[in-house]
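>> received
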Amino acid sequence: MMASISLKATAVLAILALPACSTLGSLGFGASSNDGATRQASRVRGAETVAVNRYLWAASLDVLNFLPIQSVDPFTGVIATGFGTPPGGSRAYRATVYITDPALDARSLNVALQTRSGPVAAETQRAIEDAILSRARELRSADGLL
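>> returned
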């Protein structure tokens, strides 16, 4: 009787674990590419639901693709990169992107850009934010949602 109950409990746990495996893969953990990182993060984590604009998320990864990704957290909307040099450039940069809202809006995007010697000029940071916003709008337009 006891062995039958533990066998059933093990089977139930195994079935419940299957969706968790696919969720981890869609977040980019265990996946072979960054494709999972570009999906919209609208998931329930404990008692909180966090939604990050998928176009801003994908555009940030696309525009900053020359930087090595150190960590991504779609639940909080943070992308942190290591130092990398843009094509044709000589200065190394690193970035932290914070997407605060599910709206495709400039107020939803915060980018902190830094060189090895410190923060970059405000104009450079604004140019990167503008490039991300433009790319996000292109992605949204390509989806035919305008």
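>> The longest strand covers residues 93-99.
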